[in-house]
Amino acid sequence: MNSNLSIIIPSKTDANLGACVRAIRAAGETCRIIVVDDFDGPARFLLPRDEPVDWRLGIKPFVFARNINIGIRAAGDDDVILLNDDALLKTPAGFTAMQRIAAAHRDYGIISSTCNIVGNRRQWPANKKGLRGEPRMVCFVCVLIPRRTIDAVGLLDERFTGYGCDDDDYCLRVRKAGLKIGIFDGCFVDHGSLKSTFRGASLSAGDYRPNLKIFADKWGASEGARVGTF
């Protein structure tokens, strides 16, 4: 087992979680999986009984940053991968390769896999190899955050209780700490085959307005105007 890498999956959907975990194991990854669970029903049964998943109870109402932070704390001193439960790892040992790239490029504070159906089109696969720089931010579909970044920058900002901007905020904090944002073409996750499950009070997925106000109040109107522009 990769003893210094934890995958954090916030989830409320049995079907997504089962497929997500099976894809990780099918790709040969043996690292720790931490599920932050805000499931609305009986106990889950879709994972094999011998699957060594570390279950953590999420806090309701669901706040992405808050539940992710539960997972980061549970990971101890590990590097972490934040993974949507509707994202399927397709590259054999892709997460291990991401961690290896992060170790070799310590000036990078966050590294994203490539994926499909994501707001930042630069996260789509490119006809390149290795690591490429991203000037502003990566959407948090599948990102690796080294422990050294968490030690320097801290946890996600839990004031972002609605949709979006929590990833913009963290990437900006990373850049202000003098670290780079990267995209690694040596790892691909499929973000198009499973049904996305947004849960966020009465807001619909894609309604950035409440979180955008928090972001603009925190960083200024000029930074707020850059959100959603790629």
Protein architecture, described:
The protein is globular. The protein has 230 residues and is an alpha/beta fold. It has 7 helices and 9 strands, in the order βαββαββαβββααβαα. The model has no long low-confidence stretch (mean pLDDT 90). The chain has a single domain, classed as Spore Coat Polysaccharide Biosynthesis Protein SpsA, Chain A (Alpha-Beta Complex). Strands 1, 2, 3, 4, 5, 6, 7, 8 and 9 form a 9-stranded mixed beta sheet that branches. α1 links the parallel β1 (5-11) and β2.
Write a compact overview of the structure shown:
With 230 residues, this protein is of the alpha/beta class. Helices cover 30% and strands 23% of the residues.
Write down the CATH class: Alpha Beta
Helical amount among residues, as a percent range?
Answer: 25-40%
| Alpha carbon gyration radius | 16 Å
Q: How far apart lie the N and C ends?
A: 37 Å
Fraction of residues in β-strands: 15-25%
Gross geometry = globular
Mean pLDDT comes to: 90
The count of helical stretches stands at: 7
Tell me the CATH superfamily: Spore Coat Polysaccharide Biosynthesis Protein SpsA, Chain A
Number of strands: 9
- The total tally of domains equals 1
Major sheet details:
9 strands, mixed
Uncertain spans, ≥5 residues at pLDDT below 50? Answer: none
Helix vs. strand class: alpha/beta
CATH topology type: Spore Coat Polysaccharide Biosynthesis Protein SpsA, Chain A
Q: What is the CATH-assigned architecture?
A: Alpha-Beta Complex
